[in-house]
Amino acid sequence: MPPSQAPQDRLATGTPSRYVPYAKIRDAIISGEFAPGQPLNESALATWCGVSRTPIREAISRLEQDALVTWNENGLVVRAMEPEEILDFYEVRAYLEAASARTAADRRTDRDVQMLRAKLAAGDAVDAGATRDMVQYSRGFMDLILRISRNLALVDALSRVKLQLSRTIEANPTVAYPGRWEQTREFQTAVTDLIAQRDVDGAYDVTLKHFFAARDVRLLMLSAEDA
Question: How far is it, in rounded angstroms, from Cα 144 to Cα 138?
Answer without folding.
Answer: 10
